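Section 5.1 Outputs to date
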Amino acid sequence: MKKSLILLALGCTSLNALAADTSVISITDQAFGAIANDNIDDSNAIQSAINFAVQNNKTVYIPAGTFNVENTLDFTVAGGSHHSRIKVTGEKRELSKLVTSSNISMFKVAHGVEIHNLTLSQTNSQKQGNAIDIPFASYRSHFSKLDIAGFDKGINGKWVIWSRFEDLFINNVNIGINLHGNGDAPAYWNTEPNGWFNNVNIFDNIYVEKSQTGIKLAAMGSNITNSTVQNSNIGVEIYGPANHFTWNNQISNFYAEGVQTVFKVKNSRTLDINGVFAQGGRSNARYRAIIDAENAGSITIHGMTGQDWWQHSAILKNTQLTGKLVAIGGSGNYDNQSTHSNGIIKQTASISLPANRAWQALPERITISGNSAYRVTVSGIRDGYEPVLEEYTLYNFNGSSSFGKISHVSGNQRIKFKFDAGKIFAKLDYSGGGGLSNGKITVEKVH
């Protein structure tokens, strides 16, 4: 009996401690008056709770139930952008729900905000508004365990720094997570040369489905890991506005299924991708590309697996790509300023040769090493009408080079090669005609 009484007393003490937790306020407290499941707008009640929490350093609790929100819940009203450090949490995301049919940002937040354990839904038939809007320079914020559906953008932010996005399920939106610098125009800080981006953010276990773009970032030093995009046009887009370049972003353990273009990159210096499964379309409905990159500097990809068919393995403009891409039937599409190196043994670039016996240097990033042998494949259109597909062997021994023909479709050893100061040069060995156009050269180290 004494033991039972002691346990009962301890249990009462624990319950009393929870009830007396003065650091947490509920939106259903009498002072605020939100009522679950009544289909009446609770915006004013929840806003009052948020204002009180900001002013008094409290956590806002949203209990189980559905609450209607038809006006933006603004965390910056009481203290401004730099003094809105509060935590908002539901009981569980499948239990605590905020819904709207209005074209609003459901939450407007700034520095040091936490939002956890909620479902945020837009019920209008049109994708509109944002679930969470970060309009100006948020840092050290944390968003986790959220279900988001029906909005134009799930999370929309500008100049977000040192923040975490974890365990997010985002469905039926135009853009899942959109962190932009300053629209298409550069800002005045983070000089590269004059752009302010979203820096050093973590995206962990993000799932986006049925979107135009899953994750879109004007970012530097950010990490996307353990994430998935399905049934969308673009998986991950990383970009710098105008001529302002991002760099040092990483993507790891990424899964894409039913995505037209898995990675889209523009105006970037470096991007590392490690561990990708990319599943394309049917042979009669090929998806676009695994990587579509323009002015994207150096992209490295490791550990990729996949299946099904693609129009292109990669589309490259002024970009150097290193790594193997799994793309059944997917041809590379590269301009003259781009190369694709399969690790260190296979390198591909565009090539055009005039018909005047003039030596043309291959792109500098097509590299060769001493005392090595290479297989070289050249394709293209010669003299404006003649298709070409030819293979050669090249040898580089003690600084001297030689080559021989393996096979050809037409012509008689019309292309010659030489090594000079570590570079490869090529020429058409005849004068007149239209030369070789729309060509592609692949250099593969075999020994």
